[in-house]
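Researcher: Let's do a round of design. I'm pasting the structure tokens now; please hold your answer until I've finished.
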């Protein structure tokens, strides 16, 4: 069944059905009308292939960059700037502030392909049960059934000694307070203890159900943020605005890029240019560091871990570290390098071309900045 997703004919017709369904939905005067036409088209597909078509093109053409695109477009990310003088305390304080604003995405909800594949197998009409789906998709061979009563009690006694007795006393007291007879109390309390320890479904089935639920919940939470991006801090918000507007005309993209320049470098009459002297303002040290390449960018996404941050910060510092006698003059830095992270070099180049290049060049470098965030993130 899963191998059908590798069949070019199956995939081509599935894409056709999905595209037609989108058109029918947009053209229909009511949801009932579109539903009837879409079902009729899907029935034709099922008549040939024996199953309902996938409901999303992502299952046919998975893109590992999707989660990054959605996080950036919805504002569910943040940026921390690292200069030679930036301390760990400052970095983690910024991260804490960002995480207090952006959404919390469970790792299950980020595994788009697995969630979509499991959902399709469950609803494709082939009669697959959750046990078969979990075994095929997640390669699980254990926890496919609920533990027996004796297994459940033995595990509880091993992991939490006395738990069964505590639960029994708790439930027995509850039933006594309801005025139930002692004989019935004993039976009902035992039944509740057994349900609590065995669970209502096999662990693997529960994992499948919760993964699908988390995936749908994240999609529902994401839609409002895609309509109106949230703002965790000004830097990432300015970049989100720029990236969302890359399909607009060149002049508009230049305006968005200039706004990014102002957020990063402060209010300056001219965009950053090579060799431009410092104005001596309060942010001149940061401006000189950015112009010389002595800075780095740490993007913070909902899935970013502290080990990820530590590794990237260490890599950045190994590049921008300057001799003690030169720390007052950060312009004495090596050429830009993308070895530690590609974001800051791409941004510095964008700021430089704003000074003298035309709108088309600015737009091309703005796309390069977006590409740096998409290509550097693990799938």
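Researcher: That's everything. Go ahead.
Model: Designed sequence:
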């Amino acid at each position: 069944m899963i191998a059908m997703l590798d069949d070019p004919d199956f995939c081509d017709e599935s894409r056709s059905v999905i595209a037609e369904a989108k058109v029918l939905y947009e053209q229909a005067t009511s949801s009932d009308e579109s539903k009837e036409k879409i079902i009729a088209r899907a029935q034709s597909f099922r008549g040939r292939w024996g199953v309902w078509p996938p409901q999303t093109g992502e299952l046919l053409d998975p893109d590992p960059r999707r989660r990054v695109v959605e996080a950036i477009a919805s504002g569910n990310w943040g940026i921390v700037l690292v200069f030679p003088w930036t301390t760990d305390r400052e970095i983690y304080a910024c991260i804490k502030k960002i995480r207090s604003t952006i959404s919390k995405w469970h790792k299950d909800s980020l595994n788009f392909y697995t969630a979509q594949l499991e959902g399709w197998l469950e609803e494709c009409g082939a009669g697959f049960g959750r046990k078969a789906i979990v075994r095929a998709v997640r390669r699980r061979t254990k926890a496919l059934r609920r533990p027996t009563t004796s297994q459940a009690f033995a595990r509880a006694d091993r992991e939490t000694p006395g738990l069964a007795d505590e639960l029994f006393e708790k439930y027995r007291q509850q039933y006594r307070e309801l005025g139930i007879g002692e004989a019935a109390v004993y039976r009902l309390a035992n039944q509740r203890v057994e349900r609590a320890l065995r669970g209502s479904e096999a662990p693997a089935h529960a994992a499948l159900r919760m993964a699908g639920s988390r995936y749908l919940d994240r999609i529902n939470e994401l839609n409002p943020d895609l309509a109106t991006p949230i703002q965790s801090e000004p830097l990432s918000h300015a970049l989100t605005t720029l990236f969302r507007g890359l399909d607009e005309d060149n002049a508009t993209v230049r305006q968005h890029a200039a706004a990014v320049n102002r957020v990063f470098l402060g209010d300056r009459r001219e965009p950053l240019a090579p060799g431009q002297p410092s104005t001596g303002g309060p942010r001149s040290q940061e401006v000189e560091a950015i112009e010389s390449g002595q800075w780095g960018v740490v993007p913070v996404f909902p899935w970013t871990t502290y080990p990820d941050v530590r590794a990237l910060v260490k890599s950045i510092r190994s590049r921008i570290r300057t001799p003690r006698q030169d720390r007052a003059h950060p312009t004495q830095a090596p050429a830009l390098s993308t070895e530690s992270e590609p974001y800051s070099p791409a941004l510095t180049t964008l700021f430089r071309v704003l000074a003298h290049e035309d709108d088309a060049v600015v737009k091309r470098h703005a796309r390069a900045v977006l590409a740096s965030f998409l290509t550097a993130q693990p799938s």
